[in-house]
Amino acid sequence: MAAGSDAGESGSFSCAKCGKQAHLQCPKCVELKLPREGAAFCSQECFKASWSTHKSVHLKAKVSHPGDNPGEPKAGSTKDGWLYCLRKGQSRTPKLPHFDWTGSLRPYPISKQRLVPGHIDLPDWAIDGIPKIEPNSDLQHHVEIKTPEQIERMRETCRLSREVLDAAARVIRPGITTDEIDAVVHEATIAAGGYPSPLNYHFFPKSCCTSVNEVICHGIPDARKLEDGDIVNVDISVYYKGVHGDLNETFFVGNVDEASRRLVQCTYECLEKAIAIVKPGVRFREVGEVINRHASMSGFSVVKSYCGHGIGELFHCAPNIPHYSRNKAVGVMKAGQTFTIEPMINSGVWRDRMWPDGWTAVTADGKRSAQFEHTLLVTETGVEVLTARLPSSPDVLPWLSSS
Ligand code: MF3
Ligand code: CO
How remote is the CA of residue 19 from the centroid of ligand 2, in Å? Predict the structure, then answer.
């Protein structure tokens, strides 16, 4: 956390950890207007050391003010509190930011942050937006071999993630806003006892990513209604029993043109072909060769800025898995590793640009992009797709239908 706010005002308090004179005030407590007492610290060290116990104060405060949560915006309700998202560190704005938009899509206002009940186990960024364990972990450099016990938890969490994505898929239709999809994702996740991993991850403001048309990835759910002919990717990550699951699919909204249907199906096939080579001994760099071959054969291009990643107790860790050819990914697959493959395929150029919100990656030429993602486990003989479709999964990918 970037602490250090309100140093002057906290002078008369003693450090909640060691009792010395306090110079720092927990910024979250300041924001929530919580009592200064017990929220003042002499140093970053004491603040960090107290964090695991101190943070629960914020949550109780949040949960005891459920009126702050707009929940699902009702038709005709005023959009009080809905603002455009700006890059982290900047405040939100009521005006559409200026930008050289690459296509016809624009950002819409976003609703207030959704609340998580007190009994849900939180990842370390949930309160202050800053992952603390993840960036400093050895597992950014070494690929972990999961224990049977970790693998069992990954299976459970990935299955839950799949059920949440399926719940989102069932409500997609022209007229629904991506914020309403986010509400479904949020409610389904917490109802199952999970935490929606994206929520407040590096200050990401919502519980899933929704990426429409020319959005490549990390689109923020907002007040825009999906239109007939759109394509929309919903990217779900869940934290449950101490581990993360991660998957996404791209859906058709109403009647979609032939070119977009080919793009989306090709992207699905790219992921399937990549999964098919996964087994012990295969180089991570091979994944990109397989994906690039299939995409370029169909006249499409492969995004380079976003990659597959290791996953487990950390949301994002080693290995890094590019989806493009001639990449420099290091290492070979071993049984017990878990990682994602999540190719983003563009109908035009591969190059991406970032919206002023600091999250939304769009195609540089404004043409459409599609993505599919699974969390995978390398087994002794090949691969287990931890986020695989279930018999209960809705029939929303037409090329999989037998009829
Ligand atoms: N599932 C996304 C990924 O693996 C992460 C979304 S969380 C966000 O890239 F906060 F980064 F948006
Ligand atoms: Co991912």
Answer: 43
Provide block-wise average pLDDT over 10 residues at a time, the chain (403 residues). 33 73 71 73 73 67 37 43 87 92 98 97 97 98 98 99 98 98 98 98 98 99 98 99 99 98 98 98 98 98 98 98 98 98 99 97 98 99 98 98 78
Give Dmax over CA atoms of the chain in angstroms. Answer: 73
Query: Domains of the chain (ranges plus CATH)?
Result: 4-54 (no CATH), 133-401 (3.90.230.10)
Give CA–CA dist 347/368, Å, rounded.
6
Q: How far does residue 309's CA lie from ligand 2's centre (Å)?
A: 6
CA distance 231 to 175: 13
CB of 237 within 8 A of CB of 341?
Answer: no
- For the chain, the distance separating the N- and C-terminal CA atoms, rounded to the nearest angstrom, is 54
Tell me the C-alpha distance between 300 and 94, whole Å.
Answer: 37
Question: Rounded to 5 degrees, what are φ and ψ at 228?
Answer: -55, 125
3-state secondary structure of 391: coil
Q: For ligand 1, atom 5, which residue shows the shortest CA distance?
A: 198
Q: Which of 217, 234, 247, 321 to mutate to test the pocket of ligand 1 (most atoms within 8 A of CB)?
A: 217
108 with 222: CB under 8 angstroms?
Answer: yes
pLDDT recorded at residue 37: 73
Name which of 228, 191, 194, 231 is nearest 210 in CA terms: 231
Instruction: Give the span between the Cα atoms of 304 and 323, in whole angstroms.
Output: 7
Q: Which atom of ligand 1 is nearest to the CA of 218?
A: 12
Contact 251, 389 (CB under 8 A): no
pTM across the whole model: 0.82
Query: Which protein residues are within 6 Å of ligand 1, measured from CB?
Result: 198, 201, 204, 209, 218, 235, 237, 246
d(CA 357, CA 372): 23
